[in-house]
Amino acid sequence: MPPDQRFIIHVDMDAFYASVEQRDRPELRGLPLIVGGLGPRGVVSTCSYEARRFGVHSAMPTAQARRLCPDGVYLRPDLARYEEVSERVFEVFHEVTPLVEGLSLDEAFLDVTGSLRLLGSIETIGRRIKDAIWERTQLHASVGMGPNKLLAKLASELSKPNGFHRIEAERAAQELAPLPVGRLWTVGKVTEQALHRLGIRTMGELAASDTARLASALGRQVAALQALARGEDDRRVEPAQAEQSIGAEHTYDVDITELALAEAWLLRHCERIAARARQRGLQGRTVTVKLREPPFVTHTRQAQLRAPSASAIDLYELARGLLNAWWKSQQRPRLRLLGVSLSGFAAERQQDLFDSSAERRVTDQVQDSINSRFGSGSLVRGGVLKTRRQD
Question: Pairing state of beta strands 141-146 and 164-166?
């Protein structure tokens, strides 16, 4: 093959959160299912294809979704469970190439150029990925293939759901020509409207348009947009860098005005991020608390642990001090959102035999074991239970 030719695969799980729920709860299959925030401030995270027929889509306010689909089934997301499934999906990716660029829990680009000699054609590798994901998760993935990221992503989008499609460089112009310009990854609403005012609605029309005429409306981005409209894209797959932070946060339908409830949510967040850090073999030193007052005034407070840790109680004790200090400084403390993050990571270190935190580590290990066997959240500290009333 030419030395500069690349083979890129884009994998996108179909209606991921909703599909996990329907897999685990057979009574939900075939029903319009919407997963997202359920309160007045809620937003749709994802929805089943049955719900999409009513016009529901991700990022839509839940209140609007209820008007469009009043008989739908509405569920809060279970992110811990989705993360567990996502890890199994990404294990499949890393079995075929180390060049994996994760975009979210359910979507990634893979550069398989170096894998062809060992594993076969790009279609063979794509089919292997698709089949392995189904075998391990019983979930469908749409697989798109192409010589660059743009064409691979468009191939998966055009073939959804449960898709499998390749766009070759020789056919790119033909396949892209009738597509709306809004499908290009750099074209937002403002640029799309500017193109529509020029009478340009498809990628074919954009690629064939006079550059000078476009420049008067779009400025310097014209050359890049026309290249994309021709199917040209030189972005490389960028493998994930070392994790910078692990966090958890929650936006409340009713503002928190009780310190004890805020502390309960803080403990819940600390349990979650500590478990994720232990799962990755990481210990962090920096704890950051995020506090948002209504409507959108956000504060952050940060402090350092005495030693790197992945203990929920170590994180909670430090975070609780930051929360209490902020709370006492406010005349009428109210929280619309509360979050915690852990950063400043180091690899998990060997523990001192006589370390006084040994009891905490044993508690964490028991909790990890039970939650791994029976599902995330099966065993929590008693202080977390107060938050369950808001789920």
Answer: parallel
